[in-house]
Write a structure and sequence with these properties.
The strands form four sheets. The protein has a five-stranded mixed β-sheet with strand order 4-3-5-14-6, with helices on one face. Strands 11-8-12-7-13 form a five-stranded mixed β-sheet. Strands 1-2 form a two-stranded antiparallel sheet. Strand 1 and strand 2 form a beta hairpin. The chain contains nine helices and 14 strands. The radius of gyration is 32 Å and the shape is rod-shaped. The chain folds into three domains: 85 residues, Winged helix-like DNA-binding domain superfamily/Winged helix DNA-binding domain (Arc Repressor Mutant, subunit A, Orthogonal Bundle), CATH 1.10.10; 96 residues, Periplasmic binding protein-like II (D-Maltodextrin-Binding Protein, domain 2), CATH 3.40.190.10; 101 residues, D-Maltodextrin-Binding Protein, domain 2 (3-Layer(aba) Sandwich), CATH 3.40.190.10.
């Protein structure tokens, strides 16, 4: 027998004063209502009510149990109302993960705009260039650069991620401008430590191949650090266009080797399949797709 329903019957009997009234309210027969109350008594091993032909009253144990049942049923109603609200209005907490450069330069401003539209939503943004398991790490949304592995997640492409090669004018004036990837072996190349040493810089060619294995004395796991070294005139940098675009426009960095830039990779938004996804997730997904799609 449903224990919560039995508690609900018991509370109704106490508040309405009779089994028949409680049964009518809960749309069941008086016999079934009596069965629920008796089931509680047998489970607890306590008498909950004293009955006479004219009235009924609670025992001491019944009074304590009645109070607890009221609290429990009220908590359940509050939980159900809260769940219903989550289905109808964007609210709650979103955990999002993204690569460092895209997350800090492009996604963070978008999240700020989203939060201004939906004041009942909060966001935790985790930035890492190491690919984490979205489900195991309990993220609601992940932004990935490149083709995602088949993970059973919903994948929506929201744009392209272009890497560019640049150097400061002072560096090029001192060491010359490389014209083909092979020239990079004679230059200081600011390397990203997450890239495999066996692949180095994956540079495209007109034929669509990959080539180039530059080496350098400055290696970092942070694109901003590499950007600063390039601005200081120490070497040549390969980093996302969104990270270097302002410096290029201002002339602080000069694009080089354009025919050999890596092929642009997709930016993909990933989230778990859910037929009843909460509004906080659906609105964020729609917002990001629209924001970056334009």
């Amino acid at each position: 027998m449903d224990r919560l329903l039995s508690m609900e019957v018991f509370v109704a009997v106490v508040e309405l004063g009779s089994l028949s009234a409680a049964a009518a309210q809960l749309d069941m027969s008086p016999a079934m209502a009596a069965k629920h109350v008796k089931g509680l008594k047998n489970r607890l091993g306590l008498r909950l009510m004293n009955r006479t032909t004219r009235r009924q009253s609670l025992t001491e144990a019944g009074q304590a149990y009645f109070a607890r049942c009221k609290t429990i049923l009220a908590d359940i109603r509050d939980a159900e109302q809260g769940a219903e609200a989550l289905r109808s209005t964007p609210r709650g907490h979103l955990r999002i993960t993204s690569s460092v450069s895209f997350g800090s330069f492009a996604l963070a401003p978008a999240i700020a705009e989203y939060l201004s539209i939906y004041p009942d939503v909060s966001v935790e943004l985790s930035l890492s260039d190491m690919v984490e398991d979205v489900v195991a790490s309990r993220f609601d949304v992940a932004l990935r650069i490149g083709e995602p592995a088949d993970s059973g997640l919903v994948a929506r492409r929201i744009g392209l991620y272009q890497m560019i090669i640049c150097a400061a004018p002072a560096y090029l004036a001192r060491y010359g401008t490389p014209s083909v990837p092979g020239d990079l072996s004679r230059h200081q190349c600011l390397d990203f430590s997450h890239w495999s040493r066996r692949t180095g810089w994956r540079l495209g060619t007109d034929e669509g191949g990959e080539m180039g294995y530059p080496t350098g004395r400055f290696v970092s796991n942070n694109g901003q650090a590499l950007r600063q070294a390039a601005l200081a005139g120490f070497g040549i940098v390969l980093q996302p266009e969104l990270l270097l675009a302002d410096d290029v426009r201002a002339g602080r960095l000069v694009p080089i080797l354009q025919p050999y830039w890596p092929v642009a990779r997709p930016i993909t938004l990933l989230y778990a399949k859910d037929r009843q996804a909460p509004p906080k997730l659906t609105t964020f997904v729609d917002f990001v797709v629209t924001r970056f799609g334009r």
